Amino acid sequence: MSDTLLQVEHLKKVFASGKKSFTAVDDVSFTLKQGECLGIVGESGSGKSTIARMITRLLETTEGKVILLGEDITHIKGKELRRAYQKMQMVFQMPAESFDPRRTLGDGIGESLRNMGLSKRETGKKVEELLVTCGLTPEYADRYPHEVSGGQCQRAAIARALAVAPLLLICDEATSALDVTVQKQVLELMIELKEKKNLSFLLICHDLALVQAFCDRVLVLYHGQVVETGTPDEIINHPKTEYTRKLIDSVL
Q1: pTM score of the predicted model
Q2: What share of the chain has pLDDT > 70, as a percent?
């Protein structure tokens, strides 16, 4: 069996408005192996989040294919899509977006478990375990999103994503709304999850220091196209394009 978890082939996204059209992602291809972390970096508007949203089917694909564990998921819907979400989950930039403000964090984390048929008691127990795994105490299950800090809410969002035991976590700027100390704590949690659970990560990010600390490989995106790919050290120490050099100079 191949250890390739995700295959993205010639992905393209064109946004059309009236007679005008804009190509946000243009012919992007890459693979992600099980247990690997791939970083996608580039300035705002380079197409990073659009790629994440096409992979998770939050956006329709104009051209290309998304293959998850050998299955073409480019256009799936309904039951097939719900099945795909048991293998991959997304963690968003604004942690509160993962939760309904009128419901407790525990309720939000337990939603997918209840949908899978777990009893109320089993769900409660599993929610507590997930909170502890993500560095929060069980009491957080009874709190509402507005009652916790951004970092605590992001940990709860990761707990929610982990509830279905996915193989892949797609993190779309998952630490950029947090302050530096909290960023470091969330990064440490992600490293721990990668090592202990052999989780794969797709890290959409503009922070090269974060990518260097966490990723095995990096794609550099410019105007929707991959302009460079390599290990973080190769990209940072020996950039091949002027754009990558500027990107590095602006953050390091």
Answers
A1: 0.89
A2: 98
